[in-house]
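CORE FACILITY INTAKE
Project code: CF-77B
Contact: R.S. (postdoc)
Sample description: multi-component assembly, two entities in total
Requested service: structural model of the whole complex
Turnaround: standard
Below are the sequence entries exactly as provided by the requester. Do not edit them.
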Amino acid sequence: GENVEQHPSTLSVQEGDSAVIKCTYSDSASNYFPWYKQELGKRPQLIIDIRSNVGEKKDQRIAVTLNKTAKHFSLHITETQPEDSAVYFCAAPKYNNNDMRFGAGTRLTVKP
Amino acid sequence: KAGVTQTPRYLIKTRGQQVTLSCSPISGHRSVSWYQQTPGQGLQFLFEYFSETQRNKGNFPGRFSGRQFSNSRSEMNVSTLELGDSALYLCASSPSPGTGTYSGNTIYFGEGSWLTVV
């Protein structure tokens, strides 16, 4: 199958703490892994992505790590801020097109 | 550059009716995909179009259909609406379809069309 499992479903942290969201995928041929942030009532927006030729990618307070052997990838947010509060989705493509299979989402709450 | 534009943003339909939703991709993007988002099922892939051809279809009944025009704009149609079709329908565009096995390209979402079936 091509399921993407995402954990945890909810995550609450104090402002300034780090947050980690993990996803696993089933198809070893997948080689592109984006993360989307969706604020309430708004569209999902790409925040970072990684391809399988690298193990880690950083963009300021956000990083994504990929372990192809274990078939899992993680989103790391450091120094969290209240505006980081949103639902985060991981995804992986199914075939050689843009058929993205999304995780169920993680609702992150950053408490001031 | 303008983002992905979807119309209408909100609509209410009655069971049994049909609905057509429209999507204009980012200028220069030729791949358009559609997703259904519901609280219970999350983000579910409906179908993808490239060069006016449907390249892949998700696990939805035949009541869900779509098409793409020569200018890359796309429409999706749902016939014989059911209460369970109430959802946010998201369109996403990408410069091109993924190439190679399982190597998708970045997709950019529109704001979505909120459909309520009563």
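Facility notes:
- Chain A touches chain B at residues 27, 29-32, 34, 36, 42-46, 49, 51, 89, 91-105 (CB under 8 Å).
- Chain A has no helices and eleven strands.
Invoice: internal transfer
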